[in-house]
Design a protein that fits this description.
Helix 14 runs antiparallel to helix 15. This protein folds into four domains: 40 residues; 114 residues, no CATH class; 79 residues, no CATH class; 143 residues. The chain is mainly α. The chain is 67% helix and 0% strand.
Length: 408
């Protein structure tokens, strides 16, 4: 977001005669990379590496992993401690996923694109986790092979997905899986498109209003508010990442801003509630500090806004630290996946990165050799240290998580 501006400022502030050759070469390379990135056609964001042409028979003719492997996978998911997919996509539970798998594997005619997206997206992530935990090479290679099959199916279906979809739960679930995957493969604009469509469907169905989210026929698990809050979090987070206005307006929401044990198992309600709060402040950082209107504020107004957002961000960080300690204690007792530990550590990095962006809006002190305030520099350094620690964990434990971790 700020790379080209930073490079330009660095070059302008320094005489080329005073720059060591290696630094000059590095700055030139960075400027070239940013320039090339800006020239890339936006069409590339709508193409995938493994996508294929649809066979004559449509989606039912695409190969799937063996049914016995999928049955074993779902049984493992149901009997094991929660993994990263169970939390990141908590709107899908194993029974719902099993029913959708039955539609695909026992298809007599055809099935909806949305069904195929949910099934292949879910299986892709679940096989990825199984490959990560596999201790023997043959088992790991088998899981990776199934994972690749599901990835190809998912990408092939996503490029054909019509964005005029029926307003129902399955459409929103499919769009959420699509958006999460688009972020994972560094396609933020495509993720924004899927998320915006999901947000529109949620608003059409009234999921943002408290009177519409709970019906008399609802089962023990309240899926509608959970779906809405997942869409909300993506909408707000991508707003800051892509520099676009949020689709969902906070003043239009009457739904309580929390996720409880009627939606997900404890203690994940507290974690997701924390994510909701963080995504809200991320959007406000864009709206109040970096949007076109915010950039026209006076310096005094911007400093006042920075201090207000700083206070709110630090309050979220303090509460999140307490929640994280409780959750990690519970995960250890369950012998849950170490991926979750890394994921929660990544939350701390997100907080520090957001705080860095808040401080970036502060003016540098008079006479400072840099355009950044000391608070911004110190927070950025701390965030970088957290990042390096997380990358070391990934390097030690498995290559599958690296891309997902970086893009989120």
């Amino acid at each position: 977001m700020f790379a080209s501006e930073f490079i330009e400022d660095a070059v302008q502030r320094t005489s080329l005669h005073d720059v060591p050759p290696n630094i000059h070469a590095a700055l030139s390379s960075l400027r070239q990379i940013v320039s090339m990135q800006n020239k890339v056609s936006s069409n590339r964001d709508f193409r995938f590496r493994t996508q294929q042409s649809l066979p004559p028979g449509g989606l039912p003719d695409l190969p799937m992993p063996p049914m016995n492997a999928v049955v074993a996978l779902l049984k493992h998911m149901k009997s094991s401690p929660p993994g990263i997919f169970s939390i990141a996509c908590s709107f899908l539970d194993v029974d719902d996923l099993a029913e959708l798998c039955r539609r695909v594997y026992f298809c007599t005619d055809t099935f909806a694109d949305t069904t195929f997206i949910i099934v292949n997206g879910a299986l892709f992530y679940l096989f990825m986790e199984r490959a990560y935990h596999a201790t023997e090479a043959p088992a790991r290679e088998e899981f990776e092979r199934y994972q690749h099959t599901c990835q190809t199916n998912l990408e092939t279906t996503l490029v054909c997905l019509p964005l005029i979809l029926p307003a129902k739960v399955e459409s929103i679930e499919a769009l959420l899986v699509a958006a999460v995957y688009a972020v994972d493969v560094s396609k933020a604009s495509l993720a924004w498109l899927f998320t915006s469509t999901a947000a529109s469907l949620c608003q059409t169905l009234g999921y943002h209003r408290i009177s519409q989210t709970r019906s008399a026929s609802a089962g023990p698990r309240d899926i509608k508010p959970l779906l809405f809050w997942h869409v909300y979090m993506l909408d707000k987070t991508l707003s800051l990442r892509t520099g676009r206005a949020s689709v969902i307006q906070d003043w239009d929401i009457t739904l309580p801003r929390r996720v409880d044990n009627t939606m997900v198992a404890d203690p994940w309600g507290a974690v997701i509630t924390m994510w909701i709060q963080q995504s809200e402040i991320q959007h406000r950082v864009y709206e109040q500090l970096y949007s076109p209107l915010a950039l026209n504020q006076s310096q005094e107004e911007r400093v006042e806004t920075v201090r207000r957002l700083e206070t709110e961000q630090k309050s979220i960080m303090a509460a999140a630290s307490h929640v994280r300690e409780q959750v990690l204690f519970g995960l250890k007792a369950l012998n849950a996946s170490s991926i979750l530990d890394l994921h929660l550590r990544g939350d701390e990095l997100t907080f520090q990165s957001t705080l860095t962006l808040i401080y970036r809006a502060l003016p540098a002190p008079d006479g400072s050799p840099t355009r950044f305030s000391q608070e911004c520099i110190e927070t950025a350094r701390f965030a970088t240290q957290l990042h390096l620690e997380c990358m070391q964990r990934i390097a030690e434990e498995g290559r599958h998580l690296k891309a997902v971790y970086i893009h989120w």
